[in-house]
């Protein structure tokens, strides 16, 4: 599902160059749950952003669902990202003036689907994450764990084959964090969705099938 072949990412700051990734080669198979770990500055989030099409590699080939991300035009990447990849972030990024149902339905409405169809899909997803009874609540009326479950539901709006999660439990207590991790594991196993998660937590990594440790922009260890 995801293949990196000698992927490098270099950022320029004035006359200086900062190497965030220094030749990453790996395959992540369909339906697996992989975590990317490592110290701050190791390149974890950079790799996740490249896989998600939020940034482009400086060199090397990156294939996601058979498509070379680095060779796609910006509008093609946008459409690809919308249909193929769901994102779950540490900061939930819900719109505060919309209900849980409306937040989940919004990507579908923006894609041109009818309000009825979008809300039907959103309702089914909220039921999937155990929040059907909270669908009319605004984010400020929900707990942190409930907000993140809404974010997971929104990430699944287009039934993407890949979900990318960047520290999804970073702002949650242990009970709610465990619930989110169990949910991501369930999505991987039951829906054959490929989940890639960045985390600092060894406990969180315990839910994954595979741990990829980065250091200084390179793979330090790869444990299945």
Summarize the structure.
This protein is of the alpha/beta class and 224 residues long. The protein contains 7 helices and 10 strands. It is globular and about 50 Å long.
Count of folded domains: 1
Reading side by side through the largest sheet, how are the strands ordered? Answer: 6-7-8-3-9-10
CATH fold type = Rossmann fold
| CATH class group | Alpha Beta
Going by CATH, the homologous superfamily would be: P-loop containing nucleotide triphosphate hydrolases
In which range does the helix fraction lie?
25-40%
Return the average pLDDT rounded to an integer: 92
Number of helices: 7
Q: Alpha-carbon distance between the termini?
A: 17 Å
Q: What Rg is obtained from the alpha carbons, in whole angstroms?
A: 17 Å
Overall CATH architecture: 3-Layer(aba) Sandwich
H/E topology pattern: EEEHEEHEHHHEHEHEE
What fraction of the residues are assigned to beta strands by DSSP?
25-35%
Main beta-sheet annotation: 6 strands, mixed
Structural class: alpha/beta
Number of strands: 10
Task: Write down the overall geometry.
Answer: globular
Low-confidence stretches: none
Structure report:
This protein is α/β, with parallel strands linked by helices and 224 residues long. It has one domain (2-96, 157-223): Rossmann fold (3-Layer(aba) Sandwich). It contains 7 helices and 10 strands. It has helices spanning 44-51, 74-84, 100-110, 115-128, 144-155, 174-191, 202-205, and strands at 2-13, 16-28, 33-37, 59-64, 67-68, 85-89, 162-166, 194-198, 210-215, 218-223. The strands form 2 sheets. A 6-stranded mixed beta sheet has the order 6-7-8-3-9-10. Strand 7, helix 6 and strand 8 form a beta-alpha-beta unit. The longest helix is centred in the last third of the chain and has 18 residues, at 174-191.
